[in-house]
Amino acid sequence: MNPMFRNTILVALAAIFAAAPWALDEFSLNLVTRMLIFGIAAMGVDLLVGFAGLVPLGHAAFLGLGAYAAGILTDMGLESAFVVWPLAIMVGALGAAIIGGLSLRSSGLYFIMITLAFAQMIYYVFQSLRAYGGDDGFALTRNTFAGLIDPYDSRAFYFLTLAITLVIFLLLLRVVASPFGVALRAARDNEARLAAVGLPAFGYRLVAFILSGALCAFAGVLLANLTGYITPGYGSWPQSGELLMMVLLGTAGTIWGGLLGAAIFVALSEVLSEVSDHWMFYLGLLIVLRVLLAGGETTKLLKRLDPRRRADG
Amino acid sequence: MTFSLFVEQVFNGLQLGMLLFLVAVGVTLVFGVMNLVNLSQGALVMMGGFLLATATKATSSYWLGLPLGIAALIVIAMLIELLVLRRLYARPHIDQVLATFGLMLMFNEGAVMIWGRDPVFMAIPAALEGSVTLLPGVAYPIYRLAVTIFAGALGVALHFLISRTRLGMLIRAGADKREMIQLLGVDIAFLYLMVFCLGGVLGGVAGMLLGPISAVTTGMGDPILILALVCVVIGGLGSVGGAFVAAMLVGMCDTFGRVLLPQALGAGTGQAIANMIVYLVMAAILIWRPAGLASR
Amino acid sequence: MKSYLLGVAASVALSGAAMAQEPFRIGFLSTMSGVSGVLGQDQRRGFDLALEHLGGKIGGLPVQVVEADDKFSAADAVQQMSRLIDREKIQVITGLVASNVLMAIAKPALAKGALLISANAGPSPLAGPGCNPNLFVMSFQNDQWSTGVGKYLSDKGYKRVYFMGMNFQAGWDHTKAAIRNFTGEKVAEVYTPVDQLDFSAELSQLRAAKPDAVYAFYVGGQAIAFVKQFAQAKLDIPLFGGNGLSDPTLFEGQGDAAIGLTLGTHWSAALENPVNKKFVDGFVKAHGRLPSETAANGYDDVLMLDAAVKESGGKTTPDALREALRKVKYASIRGDWHFNTNQFPVQNIYMEQVERKPDGKLGLKFLGIAAKDVQDPYVGECKMAK
After folding, report:
1. What are the tens digits of pLDDT across the range A97-150?
2. Which of B213, B220, B278 to mutate to test the interface with C (most CBs of C within 10 A)?
């Protein structure tokens, strides 16, 4: 892309996002905040799907872990976001380290199903927390920012989310371009060669898994704060499927695709459900069509990304 | 727990395991032969329930409804394969996961659009009502026993199909020797269609068997799908024998976990762990054998 | 889609016809899709039928209903609540079929100054410390049905009762209230996961324990599965429960297995009074089956709002409606009831039994009042702000 053109787009985007709070009503602004939050999670998932060539069907578990950790810590009397948020993200990362360590010993379809099964296990843990409402969930008082930001001001929360999203986006771009990112892709394309030069693929994949789990946990923390309520549904397996849909609706392997896909998905499910009680049918249909008709870039790129299925096919 | 209660619970566990096996074997066959993950298997379980209920109502006979329902299931499975899955075999896993996830959403809501939101009725056929005395003091419902026996018979038939027939040989050759199969002059497209129909129909039959004891409603297949996927993972992807052993293990662990753990650990903790026991067993097995029980 | 477009069409039509009168705009936030969609859909049917019976007006005002689907999810519910309040500028929200949804939206919606009127969900935390001047629950508090059932079991002389329920807040509320109000021996208290497929293991345990009666709290598809499997086990033990264990939305699914179930409820289709007769007959005519308890709450909700708007002299602001609701009196389909200090109902709990009617369909037989003027046990913990 020509740099002039790219800069024009970036400036235009920045202007749009900066003006959004004044152009939109509170509902729409919250919808945009939600898009950004799911964008963070989808970028995390894209790191695995697009760069490590692994498809996790259980990343909602980390969304849930982040939300529950934030909710429980807040309930215990910690209010400051500066304390609660990092701790909650660390809980997500720790969960990802354990689940990733166990799941990454397998790959391909096996990896998909194992991540799904572990996520179900975590989902049942949430459901059995009677002190925290069990299946009904519990309310969270929004975390405070030492008086710097009013957590109940929708505009302030939007700008905070926007800033976090932007920082994560830029960091991820650096990560995938770094030697780590190169090794990750090398592991995907040819694990044996990477091992031959003394670099174990497992380690790189585990780091990517932890990073993506932590990002989903961060998204969970933000979503819990935006919603003010936490339920086991955050960690349900259809939610994991939706995260993958977001990655696909954008473009896998680009990082920005996660942001775009999350925005499309949130907008789509909002519009469809306002139009029809049978929105689920139409959402399913759109997904199937999107997959079938995607003969273009996404598919070609992804096909290249997945050497394992070519190996056994 | 008395001995007779223990025997009864063993039968309960067997029955749950058999139903899970029917659902899981469809998933594992499709994986083994086509290297494809099929999340729409749960939708086929649900369709089995709805189709049998509708066919039974239309013909006023369970025994006429059964073949009609199975015929309709075959048509649906063929349509899924021909219209959607066929185009996905050469695609990356994420496309397969999402397309079959999309199919699941479509079927779940499609059932609501066709049959409405009120649940559909399905009774135990008259011939299978009542209970039998297994041991002195152990009266067991005939229908549940019939489900176990029928599912077991299907399992045995499947074993012979796979080990003794030409189709079975091709299934066993599976994904590893795809080129060789093509060299033998076998129509791969037709083989795939057959395997998908077989797997889909087994899942649908599980839904049909489940119908009279459970609720025939939208989404009824989803929790079964998840448990079946756990069986597939424990058993080893693509392994029919592994899926069988895993389904029995899951059925027993679930049944006895629900009964014994709350007694042993107190209601709260016991029930919480009972809900998770299946997944804990899975984690333990995967630590021991990362590629499942059937892995070499 | 239909109902949403109807709402819009109605508002367009009304804007011409009733230029002089501002329409009363109501948000209807409920579970309209997915597995639990049947609840919100039936509630809306009752709601719309009452509007029809009132000539499309509430308290003489034209009405505009804006529907929102919470998808049975807390996060979606909060988003939809914001759509109704922030975008549609609606200050009165009703529907609210699911407890988890009401719990999730209560705090943010009340903070925005909205008036919430639940026409189904009545979770215990909101009856106690979480009560709020702008929150009314006009249906029932979870404990109420089973308070009646517990008393009924004691009155009928049952000695040993086995208690079972679904493992979530409503399941605990209902089951524990039944246990509290039962004077005999509790044989066991068992909770099963909300998505359990098969109850064979639990039913085997139950059979071995030989109780005199069983109390069970199950709803939706779980109620179908449990009631069928209970009947198939041929235990010869009477089964009791709240209204959710079997209702006309479940009759088709449960079939003969439902016959003989004895249920505690705040309203029954078999209740004899002219308002209820008009409702039940109208519903059967329109939809071909008896109304469910959620449909009844939807219908009664509109009757109550109609009386409240008349009481407030046509004012529909949250403040005016709140004051009017506190003293509202109207002919309800469930007989006399009134709001307690925590703004949950004080009402009779009736017992009804599922039976086969002469026309071959399943219906309900009225057994009588199990407990008079029942209030929930949490009202003492409510310190209502003025």
Report:
1. 999 998 998 877 888 888 998 999 999 999 888 889 888 899 998 999 988 888
2. B213
Q: Where are the alpha helices (DSSP H) in chain B?
A: 3-34, 41-59, 62-83, 93-115, 142-164, 166-173, 178-183, 188-210, 222-235, 240-265, 267-288
Q: What is the pLDDT of residue A10?
A: 78
pLDDT digits (tens, 9 = 90+) for C71-93: 888 889 999 999 999 999 999 99
C110 touches chain A (CB under 8 A): no
- List the beta bridge partners of residue C338: C346
Nearest to C213 by CA among C239, C231, C181, C191: C239
Among A244, A195, A188, which residue's Cα sits nearest to residue A63? A244
d(CA C225, CA C212): 22
Decide if pLDDT at B93 tops 90.
no
A neighbours by CB contacts (3+ pairs under 8 Å): B, C
Question: b/e string for C243-252 if b means 16 or more Cβ within 10 A?
Answer: bbbbbbbbbb
Q: What is the ipTM of this complex?
A: 0.90
Q: Please check whether residue B249 lies inside any domain of the structure.
A: no
Say how far residue A87 (Cα) sits from the centre of its chain. Answer: 18
The domain A29-312: what is its CATH number?
Answer: 1.10.3470
Rg, chain A, Cα only: 19
Q: Within the 241-300 window of chain C, which residues sit less than 8 Å (CB to CB) from chain A?
A: none
Q: Packing angle between helix C293-311 and helix C274-287, nearest 10 degrees?
A: 130
Q: Is residue B295 part of a domain?
A: no
Assess if residue B259 is contained within a domain: no
Residue C20 has pLDDT above 60, yes or no: no
Give dist(CA C322, CA C131) in Å, integer: 14
Query: Which of B5, B213, B258 is facing C228, going by the closest CB pair?
Result: B213
| pLDDT of res. B174 | 65
pLDDT tens for residues A150-184? 888 889 999 999 999 999 999 999 999 999 999 89
Tally the domains of chain B: 1
For residues A215 and A231, give the distance between their C-alpha atoms in angstroms, rounded to a whole number: 19
DSSP notation for C312-323: TTS--SHHHHHH
Partner C, chain A 117-176, Cβ-Cβ below 8 Å: 124, 127-128, 130, 133-139, 152
Contact B108, B102 (CB under 8 A): no
Q: Distance between CA C362 and CA B195 in Å, rounded?
A: 44
DSSP for B192-213, please give it: HHHHHHHHHHHHHHHHHHHTTT
pLDDT at A308: 44
Backbone dihedral region for residue C62 (phi beyond 0: left; psi -120 to 50: alpha; all else: beta): beta
The answer to whether residue B99 is domain-embedded is yes
pLDDT at B272: 82
Q: Which residue of B has its CA nearest to C196?
A: B223
d(CA C345, CA C138): 6
DSSP strand pairing (C92-95 vs A138-139): unpaired
Nearest to B220 by CA among B25, B14, B15, B41: B41
Chains touching B (3+ CB pairs < 8 Å): A, C
Residue A174 is which amino acid?
A: R
Element spanning C217, H or E: strand C213-217
Q: Which domains does chain C have, with CATH numbers?
A: 2-140+272-335 (3.40.50.2300), 143-265+348-379 (3.40.50.2300)
Range of the domain at B193: 17-218
